[in-house]
Amino acid sequence: MIVLVIGAAIILLVLAYNIYQESQYRKQLREQFGHANKDALLDSQVNSVRDGAEAQSVMNTKTVPPAEEANKTDNSSAEQFETSATDEKVIDGTVSEEENVSAVQAASSAPDNVAAPENSAAHIDMAPLSRTVPVKGRKALLDVRDMSKQPLPWFDVRFDYLAYIALYQPKELHAMPRLSSRSRFRLVGCTMDDRYQIAEPIPSVYYQGFVVGLQAISRSGLLTHEELAHFGEQANRFAEQMDGQLLLTDINTFLDVARPLDDLCARVDQTIAIHLVSRTNVSGTELRSAVEKQGFELGHDGAFFYADTDGEPLFNIVTLDNTPFTSTLLANQNYRGFSMLFDIVHIPNGEKCFDQFMDMAVKLSSQLGLDLVNDKVEELSTEWLREVRRYVVDRQKEMKQVDLEPGSELAKRLFS
């Protein structure tokens, strides 16, 4: 009898020790993860890619809404975008000239004790910029309003804030203007044979007008009214230097059109992170060999990437703490594991690619003896994977409803 009691006590001690070891193991992994240690949909404060985080936490089955609710969300978001666009007179992808293009007037600063709402239409008008008023007795080579009607493939009026400059006499472009320190801009010129092309400072190439497009939406968010007004002032100085007449897109109308798209971009811009972790360690040499056999290559940014047939990166592999992989470190140190990243907005055909992504994760897990877990260090179940897969498909469906194809050049511009 005593032997049985002692044996039972020993078994209980072993079980308690194993539970303690498992708890310590999970605690260590949580401390090592460089990603947010929360669920992406349970807590709205978790950083998304838009917030500057490296990766968005993966979702579990409790956080992904049921299929009916997801479809309802997709439809309502699409209706919201379409309604807003209709209200602002967006027709066939272009904003009507009467609403969208006018001489922009600079916003004055509000009194110190009054907090003027940002991007509000209640900005006080000041005198027009010098080049928005035609010079008496002179005729520009082009009509700026006719220029605003030209369908130019380099711009998208939903997120490119446009300025039109018609010159009074032909000019060469001697140097590229400095028009923005934060956002990208494109400069398109109209040559003397009425052809529009990317403007470059090439000798003996004369222009009769320019269109400048400032990208107002990116992963940094939507530019403010003040930032767009500042760009207008810079465009005005460029028009003065080139001796031309300036026409600016109306800021308030532009922002009314851009906000719904910016909201959608913030919502879909997420990266799925799945972690492969070891209960002990895996050597860097073994890790590198395994991932390279799957087709990954070590990039200059310290992450492994898997490219598609066109050479475009599809999936990434990074360390658990976001420190870079290097050839030297991989050859000389061990790792607790790594994270595989799936960037929803940059990967075309999300359903097919996610299946490929998970197939690679399972193979690497098997080859290296690693556990597949999410940010909460919970093992991944088949049901969990189905829900995440559906989540990816739903977010990409939202993008396609507004003609924003995942992985396209347009997506690369917006999510960069």
UniProtKB/TrEMBL annotation:
GO biological process, one term: cell septum assembly
Keyword set, alphabetical order: Cell cycle, Cell division, Cell inner membrane, Cell membrane, Membrane, Transmembrane
Biased segments, Polar residues type: 73-84
Ranges for domain ZipA C-terminal FtsZ-binding: 268-392
Ranges where the record places region Disordered: 66-87
Keyword DNA damage part of the UniProt annotation: no
Annotated function: Essential cell division protein that stabilizes the FtsZ protofilaments by cross-linking them and that serves as a cytoplasmic membrane anchor for the Z ring. Also required for the recruitment to the septal ring of downstream cell division proteins.
UniProt protein name: Cell division protein ZipA
